[in-house]
Amino acid sequence: RPLNWRVMYLDVGQGDCAVIEWKQHVFIVDAGPKYEEVLKPYLYARGITRIDGVLLSHADWDHIEGLLALSQDPDFSIDRLWVGEGKESEHQTLLESNIERNGGVVQRVSAGYSFKTEGFCVTVLSPKQNAEHIDSNEDALVALIEVDNRFFFFPGDIGENTEKKILHELQDVDVLKVAHHGSRYSTGMDLLERIRPELAVISCGRDNRYGRNKRFRYN
User: pTM value?
Assistant: First the structure.
């Protein structure tokens, strides 16, 4: 158990939320439901009031709901928000406005963008600049995050078609946040054989309305 960093995947039901702490820095990837019940108490328990950066994979409600609440909470500040270059939703526009009004910076990023600080690195792998998809899930920001030489893959809600387009940019990872809450249309065998994670985390609500999530196995 490292002394100077941690990556925590929070149980927010049918949605995503991860909190990454590195030395004195804090980064959040998405934040779905249960802000008052889960994310806010967790931040309080960790003594966190300032968030260095937030990455919003895309503006679906199960990824942005908690971020909206966080951005409106006077007990916390957000220095930076990373969002994709695709079409904005009403919720995303409000989130950006909240952060900028409180002195934070909003950055629109695409494949190739990288942010580094003291042994921590966020690299965006998808989508490419000016890419357009019919399905908003395929426009989700896909990020590879390195913390102290360990790699954490956050693919948002992309499907197998987008996975195949970025395979050549991937390597072995330590932890995979399984795409699209375990959907049968993502996390294909090509991806698994390429990244070979030591651990996979599926964030989905018990008895969710989408039915059973697929089971996968590989050697």
Answer: 0.91
